[in-house]
Write a structure and sequence with these properties.
Blueprint lengths: L1 H21 L3 H6 L5 H21 L4 H10 L1
Helix pairs in contact: 1-3
Length: about 70
């Protein structure tokens, strides 16, 4: 689930990069404008993935936890 969320967040970030640099909204272009129902669904799914990714900031990495156990 983490990887899927990260992929969606990266897609959203790249879309915003295009908007910022070239005033080109790829999602809107592909799905019929920024107010089209499918575009709104895509924006919402990407937004939810971003909210989900907030939880990644507060998780301990398994590799780091394992290193601590080995040191002790």
């Amino acid at each position: 689930m983490d990887r899927y969320a990260l992929v969606l967040v990266i897609i959203g970030a790249l879309n915003w990069l295009l908007v910022g640099l070239f005033r080109y909204d790829l999602v809107a272009n592909l799905f019929g404008g920024h107010t089209a129902p499918f575009s709104r669904i895509v924006y919402s799914v990407i937004g939810l993935a971003g909210v989900y990714c907030i939880s990644l900031l507060f998780r301990e990495r398994q590799g780091e936890a394992h290193k601590d156990e080995v040191k002790e």
